[in-house]
Structure formats: structure tokens, C-alpha cells
Design a protein that fits this description.
The protein is α/β, with parallel strands linked by helices. The relative contact order is 0.15. The protein folds into two domains: 85 residues, Glycogen Phosphorylase B (Rossmann fold, 3-Layer(aba) Sandwich), CATH 3.40.50.2000; 165 residues, Rossmann fold, CATH 3.40.50.2000. Strand 4, helix 5 and strand 5 form a beta-alpha-beta unit.
């Protein structure tokens, strides 16, 4: 809608406009009915993930018009150490709206197999949305009431406290039935910045936030045993994963630095 407004004003006032395009804008239902016109008329199009950049190219946007600038996150406090928060239980966290593209039914299946493998864990899920009731029913059906807690929507401070009180972050995003998917979900670099071990879906743009097996794990959300295997090993030998968590913290502060990305955006505008 903001891009449509800018496009309309540009026609009324004969001035140039630019626009942002993220995963939702270009994937869900193929985009809105004016998307092609807006992309053609825009001076440049800014996006924040390589997967969306590729989609823009397929939609006919010339590479010179596409400006890939990652989103930025504020510098977040990191945990004082990389020991498990509870010595006998791994604290798992996931944050996002309770919608199809977040893949929460897959997450519950992973939790079910993790429990079956004998791993002691507690998974907290932050967020609300239209699938809340169905997800609660599925959690109960899988007998995960004691292992999985849905916390609903929380404010930024409360979420930050959960980051610092957790050991690993799980993101099981998928491409939903309408074609929608995440680019780089903000919660992945936020978790990395807080020092968590990140296991993320290899669908769409989430793996762009880290280097696979060096600062996180890029995994097929439909292949549950692989997730379970890594988490089992993590519960047995958390120290083995400290270098990955430390690398994630360093990497995210470089790639998602607000000052550097801000300077890039300013240069894009001043060069036009």
C-alpha cells in the first residue's frame, strides 16, 4: 500500500519514487495486481534477502534496479556464558505469528520425537495468530503439555529476557499454500545476537542469516530426525556447540549492523 501511494503521487506530481519489496510483497498470491507496474516504474527497489532479490529478477526487474540491503537489528546483550540454562533440561525457543508459513506443526512433530528420544527439554513459543487453537489441540494430542508452552504475544523486553534465558532457537518456516514464505525473519538474527544455537528451516531466506554448520544449522523442516539428532547431541555435549554460538554472535553483528546498513541506504539515495 505505501508503494502504491508513492506510485500514485509520482503520476500526479511527475516525481520519481522508490519502493521496498519483501517476501510477503512478491510471493504471497504472486503479489498484488499493481506489483508489475510499480516494479517497472520505480527508480529502484530495495529488498533485504537474496531469495526475494531472485524473485524480483524473475519478475523482470533489471539487476541494476535491485538494491539488496539487509535489515538491521540493535546490539543485544549476550548471555554471560554458554552453559545450559538448566543443567538437566535444554531450553528451546521459537518466536513468530501462529500462521501457516511459520511451520509450527512441524515444530510440534520435532518436539514429539525429541521427547520420544528421551531428551529433557522445554519449548516456549511466543506469538499469537489464527492457528493458535489448532496448535494447542495438536500439542495436547501429542501429549506435549508439559514440554511445550504457548506464551502468546509478548513485548520486546519480555522476548529479550526469553532469548537470554534459552539455549537454542528453532525456526521451522515453510512455503505456505498461498506461496508466502519468510525472507530473513528478524527473529533468527535476534537469536544469534543473543548467543543462542540456531536451527532454521532451509526454505526461502532464513539460511542467509548465518553460515551453515559454522554459525547455525540450515535444515529441511520436513526431515524431523535431523533436527532431533542435533538437539540430542546438544543436550549431551553443549560445549561442543559453543564455537558455533560464538561465531553466530560475531557474524550477525557484522551483517546486520544498523550503522553500516544505514550508510548503504543513504548512499543509494544520494547516488540517484
Amino acid at each position: 500500500m505505501p508503494a502504491t501511494a508513492a506510485f500514485t503521487i509520482s503520476k500526479l506530481e511527475a516525481i520519481e519514487f522508490s519502493m521496498g519489496a519483501h517476501a510477503y510483497d512478491v510471493f504471497r498470491d504472486g503479489g498484488d495486481w499493481l506489483l508489475g507496474i510499480k516494479l517497472a516504474e520505480a527508480k529502484f527497489v530495495r529488498t533485504s534477502s537474496a531469495s526475494t532479490e531472485h524473485r524480483l529478477s524473475l519478475l523482470g526487474v533489471h539487476p541494476s534496479k535491485i538494491k539488496l540491503v539487509p535489515r538491521s537489528i540493535s546490539h543485544r546483550p549476550i548471555a554471560n556464558d554458554f552453559q545450559l540454562r538448566n543443567s538437566d533440561t535444554i531450553e528451546l525457543l521459537s518466536v513468530g505469528r501462529l500462521v501457516e508459513k511459520k511451520g509450527y506443526f512441524h515444530l510440534l512433530n520435532i518436539a514429539f520425537l525429541l521427547k520420544k528420544a528421551g531428551v529433557l527439554f522445554h519449548l516456549k513459543i511466543v506469538g499469537d495468530g489464527p492457528l493458535r487453537r489448532e496448535l494447542l489441540v495438536e500439542r495436547d494430542r501429542l501429549s506435549l503439555v508439559r514440554q511445550v508452552t504457548f506464551l502468546g504475544g509478548l513485548n520486546q523486553k519480555e522476548v529479550q529476557e526469553l532469548y537470554l534465558g534459552s539455549d537454542a532457537f528453532l525456526f521451522t518456516g515453510i512455503i505456505d499454500s498461498k506461496g508466502d514464505r519468510d525472507g530473513i525473519p528478524n527473529v533468527v538474527p535476534e537469536a544469534m545476537a543473543s548467543g543462542l544455537l540456531v536451527l532454521a528451516s532451509d526454505q526461502a531466506g532464513a539460511p542467509e542469516a548465518f553460515q551453515d554448520k559454522m554459525s547455525g544449522f540450515s535444515l529441511n523442516p520436513y526431515n524431523y530426525p535431523v533436527w532431533v539428532s542435533i538437539l540430542c547431541e546438544f543436550s549431551k555435549c553443549p560445549q561442543q556447540f559453543v564455537p558455533i554460538r560464538e561465531s553466530a554472535h560475531r557474524f550477525v553483528r557484522q551483517k546486520f549492523d544498523s550503522s553500516e546498513n544505514g550508510r548503504t541506504l543513504v548512499k543509494i539515495f544520494t547516488d540517484q
